[in-house]
C-alpha cells in the first residue's frame, strides 16, 4: 500500500510538472522595444534580436514586440518609457544608452535587457557587469579605442590632429571620447573637440573642423550618427578620413572602423532573454562586453579622399562600395 501511495505521489508530481511546462509554453509574452533614433545600426540590432527570438521558438502566437522609436527626442523618450510601463510588458529591450537609462529610471520593477551600451557601469545601469543588481542586464559594445587609432595609423599614416564630434549628454559618447583623449595624450597626438546637443548642430560642428584637423573620429553617438552622412560629405569634399564606431557609419560614408556586428549583438541579448524566460534570475545573467571586431572600409570613400588601401588589407576587411 505504501508503495502504491508513493507511486501515486510521483505520478502526481510528474503530472503537475507537465501542466506547468504546458502552461509556460502556452504563455504569451509582450516585449517592449525602445529605440532612441532611426539609424541602420539600431535597426540591425533590433532585427537581430527579434529574428533570434523567433528562432528560439517565440513565434508570433507566443511573443508580441511593441516597438517604439523616440526619433532622437528626449521628451518623446520619456513618454515612450512611461507608456511601456503602463502597458505592463513582461520585459523591456532598450537599444543604446539613453533609452536604457530612461527606462531604468522609471523604477517600474520590469526587467530590462540592454543592447549596445558602451559603459553600463558608468551609465548607472548596473554596479558590476558580472552581477547585475538593478534588474537589468545585456551586452556592451565598448569601442576599442586603441585599435581604432592603430587602424588610422595603418590606413592613413601620419595623422597628428583628430577632430572629435560628439554629444555631451550621451554617457556612452563621453566615455569613448575620454578614452580616446587619454590615448592621444599618451601617444603625442592632438585633438579638436566639436560638441553638439542635437543632430541639427552636426553640420556646423563638422565644418568647424575643416582646416584644423587631419582626420575625424566619431564615437558611438546616436545624435551624431543620425546626421553622419552630413559629416561624411563635408569630410570627402576636404579629403579628411572619418573613422566611425560602427559598420553603419561606414555605410553612411565614413572611411573605416573596427566594428562589432550590430545584428550579432542583438542576437546575443536574445539568448540572454531566453535564459530569463526559462527561469534564470536577471542577477544570474551576467552582462557581457562584445569582443569580436571586424575591420570595415568604405572603398568609395577611400577613392574620394585619395587613400589607397592595399589589396592585402582589403582581403582582411569587410569592404563596402
Spatial arrangement of strands, main beta sheet: 2-1-3-4-5-11
- SS-derived structural category: alpha/beta
What CATH architecture of the largest domain would you give?
3-Layer(aba) Sandwich
Write the element-wise H/E pattern from the N-terminal end onward: HEHEHEHEEHEHEHEHHEHEHEEHHE
Rounded Rg: 23 Å
Explained architecture:
The protein is of the alpha/beta class and 321 residues long. Helices cover 45% and strands 19% of the residues. Helix 6 links the parallel strand 6 and strand 7. Helix 3 crosses helix 4.
Topology (SSEs and partners):
Layout: H1 2-26, E1 29-35, H2 40-55, E2 63-69, H3 74-87, E3 91-95, H4 97-104, E4 112-115, E5 136-140, H5 145-155, E6 161-167, H6 171-187, E7 190-196, H7 202-209, E8 215-217, H8 222-226, H9 228-237, E9 242-243, H10 247-251, E10 256-259, H11 262-277, E11 288-289, E12 294-298, H12 299-304, H13 311-315, E13 318-320
Parallel strand pairs: 1-2, 1-3, 3-4, 4-5, 5-11, 6-7, 6-8, 8-9, 12-13
Antiparallel strand pairs: 10-12
Helix pairs in contact: 2-11, 3-4, 7-9
Amino acid at each position: 500500500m505504501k508503495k502504491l501511495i508513493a507511486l501515486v505521489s510521483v505520478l502526481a508530481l510528474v503530472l503537475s510538472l507537465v501542466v506547468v511546462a504546458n502552461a509556460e509554453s502556452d504563455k504569451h509574452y509582450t516585449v517592449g522595444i525602445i529605440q532612441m533614433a532611426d539609424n541602420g545600426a539600431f535597426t540591425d540590432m533590433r532585427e537581430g534580436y527579434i529574428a533570434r527570438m523567433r528562432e528560439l521558438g517565440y513565434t508570433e502566437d507566443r511573443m508580441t514586440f511593441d516597438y517604439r522609436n523616440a526619433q532622437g527626442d528626449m521628451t518623446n523618450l520619456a513618454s515612450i518609457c512611461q507608456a511601456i510601463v503602463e502597458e505592463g510588458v513582461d520585459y523591456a529591450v532598450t537599444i543604446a544608452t539613453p533609452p536604457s537609462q530612461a527606462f531604468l529610471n522609471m523604477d517600474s520593477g520590469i526587467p530590462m535587457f540592454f543592447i549596445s551600451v558602451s559603459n553600463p557601469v558608468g551609465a548607472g545601469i548596473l554596479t558590476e557587469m558580472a552581477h547585475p543588481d538593478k534588474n537589468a542586464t545585456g551586452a556592451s559594445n565598448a569601442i576599442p579605442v586603441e585599435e581604432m587609432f592603430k587602424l588610422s595609423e595603418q590606413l592613413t599614416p601620419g595623422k597628428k590632429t583628430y577632430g572629435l564630434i560628439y554629444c555631451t549628454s550621451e554617457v556612452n559618447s563621453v566615455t569613448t571620447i575620454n578614452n580616446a583623449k587619454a590615448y592621444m595624450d599618451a601617444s603625442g597626438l592632438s585633438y579638436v573637440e566639436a560638441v553638439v546637443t542635437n543632430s541639427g548642430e552636426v553640420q556646423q560642428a563638422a565644418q568647424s573642423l575643416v582646416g584644423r584637423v587631419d582626420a575625424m573620429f566619431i564615437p558611438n553617438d546616436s545624435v551624431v550618427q543620425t546626421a553622419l552622412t552630413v559629416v561624411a560629405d563635408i569630410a570627402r569634399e576636404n579629403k579628411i578620413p572619418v573613422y566611425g564606431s560602427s559598420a553603419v557609419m561606414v555605410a553612411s560614408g565614413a572611411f573605416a572602423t573596427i566594428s562589432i556586428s550590430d545584428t550579432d549583438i542583438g542576437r546575443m541579448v536574445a539568448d540572454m532573454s531566453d535564459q530569463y524566460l526559462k527561469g534564470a534570475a536577471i542577477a544570474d545573467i551576467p552582462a557581457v562586453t562584445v569582443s569580436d571586431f571586424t575591420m570595415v572600409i568604405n572603398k568609395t570613400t577611400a577613392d574620394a579622399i585619395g587613400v589607397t588601401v592595399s589589396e592585402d588589407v582589403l582581403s582582411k576587411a569587410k569592404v563596402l562600395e
